[in-house]
Structures are given as structure tokens and as C-alpha cells.
Amino acid sequence: MRYLYIDTCAASAVALVDTDTSDVKTAEVADSRSQVESLSGLISRVLAGSVMPDCVMVSRGPAPFTGLRVGLVTARALGAAWGVPVLGVDELTVQATAAVSLWDAASRGANPDDGRIVTVMDARRHEVYAALFAADAGVSRLSEDWVGSLEVLAGQLTTWDPEFPSRGDLVRFVGNKADAVPTAVTLQPGIADLARAAQTVVARCLAGSDGETGVGFDLEKLRGESELLLMKRGLGTEPEYLRRPDIQEKK
Q: Which ranges does the record mark as transmembrane (predicted)?
């Protein structure tokens, strides 16, 4: 299977993954406000010399309004033009899944399931998007996606996991705002890591269980499925903002 992964939550990043050969072609631009100008060129770059992908996977946020919309609209347009499924994935879950793949299980203590992953992404307005996950085989979610200030996040983590303050070295932070957390030990997956993690997230959603660890799924079953059914599977492409857009129409 070949799939195109699009992520415009923090910047503009794309990856073309061939699961049969394990080849990954990536392209990205670090500017967090140039998605409109850069995304189509990045996609053309990774697709050059390749056959059409079998599906498109795209991050649906949470993320700031404009950049996120660019990625989602582009993914839908490509899916319609190519006649392939378009699958949306939660950004915070993908980040956590990629982080667990980079975190050596032996360093998570006697019981690797005690490890915790905190995804922290820039939400602008001096706020972050965040979520807490267990660093187990299924990257089990321990909170809903949340938006708020870094100062409030510390208390929120304890609300989600009362034992969080005592976990110490069993905690890793991931995301483009992870370095802003005082004393945080961070993991920094690249776009290739995130693209592979997206496939794992899709497979778990289709399996209907966070405990599933396989990454294979039957793509044919997804062809022609409605957006509503994909949403029920956790794979819809409706954007996740968690708050109203920065710019609003005057009344």
C-alpha cells in the first residue's frame, strides 16, 4: 500500500509511504504560516516519479484555523480527484504514537505501561493543545484533547493522572511546544515517524480497540464510505479547533 500523509498543524509537511518496501519520501517547510503557498509544491515533490497513492491520510488537528483548513481541503480534493479514501487522524494521538515508537521500552521502568506521553502543540494566543497518553502498546488515551495555557497544564495533568507528579523519568513530552515545558524530557519525531504513526492510528481505529498493535487494514472496505461513517470510526476529516477561529465576522 502507498499512502500520502499531509500534516499542516504546525507547518507544512508531507510524506509518501510505501508499506511494501518501507520507502518514505518526505518534504516540509518549517514556516507555520505558509501552508497556502507551500503545500502543493511539497506534494508534487514527493509524488514525482511515483504512482498514484492508494489513500490519503491527513491530520485533522487540533490546530489553528487557517493552516489546518489548507491541509484538510487539499486532502479532500486529492482524494476526490484520485478516487481514493481520505482518512483523518487526531494530531495529538499521532504525535504520541510516534513518540512511543522512539522511546525505548527498557527505559520506561520495570513496567513499561507506567510511562506517560504528553503531547503539547502550539495553539497560539499563548496557549497549547495537549493530551495525556499511556506509553503502552496501544498508546491508550488518558484524556480528551485540551486547550489552555502552559501554566494551567501542570495542574491539568494531575487531574488526568493523580500519580503524574511522582512519575518523574517515566514521562516524555512531544510536540512543537514540548520544549516550552520547564524541565521536560522531550522526544522529537520527524515527518517520516509521524506518517508511519498515522497508519498505526488508522489501523487501531478500524480495529475498534486501542489495544490493537497491528498496522495492517483492508483498504478496500473504506472505498466509498461516507464521511459520517468515517467519523464514527474516528477517521473523519472534520477539523478539530477546540475553540473559535482567531478572526470572526462582525455582527
A: none
Q: What are phi and psi of 12, to 5 degrees?
A: -120, 115
> How does pLDDT run across 214-236, given as a tens digit for each residue?
445 677 778 778 888 888 889 99
SS3 77: helix
CB neighbour class for 186 (10 Å; exposed up to 12, middle 13-18, buried from 19): middle
Could you give the CA distance from residue 162 to residue 167 in angstroms, rounded to a whole number?
10
- Please say whether the dihedral angle defined by the alpha carbons of residues 161, 167, 168 and 170, taken in this order, is positive or negative: negative
Q: Which domains does the chain have, with CATH numbers?
A: 2-90+191-233 (3.30.420.40), 92-187 (3.30.420)
> In this structure, which amino acid lies at residue 152?
V
In whole angstroms, give the CA distance from residue 105 to residue 171: 12
Distances (CA, A) of 186 to 14, 24, 111, 116, 237: 23, 24, 20, 12, 29
Contact (Cβ atoms closer than 8 angstroms) between residue 123 and residue 147 = yes
For 84, list phi and psi in degrees, rounded to 5. Answer: -125, 160
Q: Which triple of cell numbers denotes residue 249?
A: 465576522
User: Which residue type sits at 127?
Assistant: E
Q: What are the tens digits of pLDDT across the range 141-170?
A: 999 999 999 999 999 999 999 999 999 999
Query: Could you give the CA distance from residue 251 to residue 248 in angstroms, rounded to a whole number?
Result: 9
State the pLDDT at residue 210: 40
DSSP 147-190: EE-HHHHHHHHHHH-TTGGG-GGGEEEESTTGGGSTT--EE---
